[in-house]
Design a protein that fits this description.
By secondary structure, the protein is mainly alpha-helical. The protein contains 2 helices and no strands. Helix 1 crosses helix 2. The longest helix has 39 residues. The radius of gyration is 13 Å and the shape is flat.
C-alpha cells in the first residue's frame, strides 16, 4: 500500500512539473484550482480551473 501511494505521488509531481514546463505558472494555478474544486465539490473552483486550462491550451502560436 505505501508503494502505491509513493508511485501515485511521484506521478502527480511529475505531471505538475510537465504542466509548469509547458504552460508556466498559470498552468499550475489552473490545475490546482481544478483539483481543489473537484475534491471540495465546488463547481465554481472547478469551472475557474477548467477555464484557465482551456484558455492556455487554445492559445494561438504554441
Amino acid at each position: 500500500m505505501p508503494v502505491i501511494a509513493l508511485v501515485l505521488a511521484t506521478l502527480t509531481l511529475g505531471f505538475e512539473q510537465l504542466v509548469q514546463w509547458k504552460y508556466g505558472a498559470m498552468g499550475v494555478v489552473g490545475l490546482a484550482m481544478l483539483t481543489i474544486g473537484l475534491k471540495a465539490r465546488s463547481a465554481t473552483c472547478t469551472a475557474i480551473g477548467s477555464i484557465i486550462l482551456v484558455l492556455l491550451l487554445t492559445q494561438p502560436g504554441q
